[in-house]
Structures are given as structure tokens and as C-alpha cells.
Amino acid sequence: MEYWNNKRNVEEYIKISDGYDGRDLIEILKNYLPEGSSILELGMGSGKDLDILNKTFRTTGTDISTVFVEKYKKKHQDADVFVLDAITLKTERKFDCIYSNKALQHLTKTEFKQSLKKQKELLNPNGLLFHSLWQGDKEETYGNLLSVFYTKEILTRIVRNDYKIIEINYYLEMEEDDSLYMILKKIE
After folding, report:
1. How far apart are CA 58 and CA 70, in angstroms?
2. CATH assignment of the domain containing 35
3. Backbone angles phi, psi at 24, to 5 degrees
4. Cα 37 to the center of its chain, rounded Å
5. Using one digit for the tens of pLDDT, what is the confidence trace for 147-168?
6. Pairing of strands 139-142, 123-134
7. What is the model's pTM?
8. Of 33, 63, 69, 154, which has the highest C-beta tally within 10 A?
């Protein structure tokens, strides 16, 4: 959390991520989620994906970083955004879908599992999860920022008791098959 509440780190992240957004992922999501559905975005960062999602869905943006949330609110005063920890997910609101683009990779594997369990509680009946992550079986640290990589097999083991797997597929972010996305349906 400290990393993301440092203004210099946030500005550095914004520069590094320039030119990247979840436009292609959101096009895939549109095949599974009706227009106007409610979405909770975890780890909205600078809000690029939030802006794209808002064109089709009713989206609530969240981030653990007050810097990101305040920065976004300055430009979008009426936006539905707030600070939210992706592990504890302390909100009473319910959603048709929970979305993240390379945000949950910053959780440890234990925290990631806790988050997925908690996300299930925030989903409406037949709710979906749509998350993207780096593909692989390793952990890296950049400064104080952890990145955990996942394979289809690892994700399948993690989610199989709580979610029906709709899709887990690889895609290209920077290099062939360096990333994957998963679409999961809540098991009632």
C-alpha cells in the first residue's frame, strides 16, 4: 500500500503505462456481460480502463491508492470511485462483474486467494469475474512492488471450488503470451 500512496511512484507508473489500456480485454468482456451491467473495477490506477468501461457499463472504480482516486476525482468530479483494499473488499455494494487489469498481481498468492473468496460475496447471482495477470510461474519485486505471475494450471486450482471457469486464455501485452485473462462465473 505504501508504494501506491507515494506520488512519485504513481507518476512513474503513469509514465510507464502510457500507451497501454484494457480496450481489447473490455471487448472480450462485452461478449459475456450485457450493456448497462454494474462493474466494480479493482485497481483502477489512472482510470484508463474505467473510462472505457463507463462507455458501456455502470462502473465503480476503486484503488488502494488515495493518490490515484483523488487524482481521478479531480478530473471526473461525479465519478463513482473510492479507496478500497482488494483483499478485504469492505463494501456492502453488489455488482454484476468485478474487473481488474494487472492489479491483483501485486497481491501475494495467499492475499489473491482471500480476495477471490471475498469477491464472490460482492457478486450478484450469476456474477462474473474478469481479471488479467502476467503469465508465468514466478514472483518479481520492483522496488517495493511485488508482481506474482500465474499459469492456467495454477489459476484453475485456485478458483475451481468457488467459480466456474468460462475462459482462461493467453494474450499479448508486450510479448507473445506474456499475459492471461480469466473469466469466471460465481458458483451459487
Report:
1. 20
2. 3.40.50.150
3. -65, -40
4. 17
5. 999 999 999 999 999 999 999 9
6. unpaired
7. 0.92
8. 63
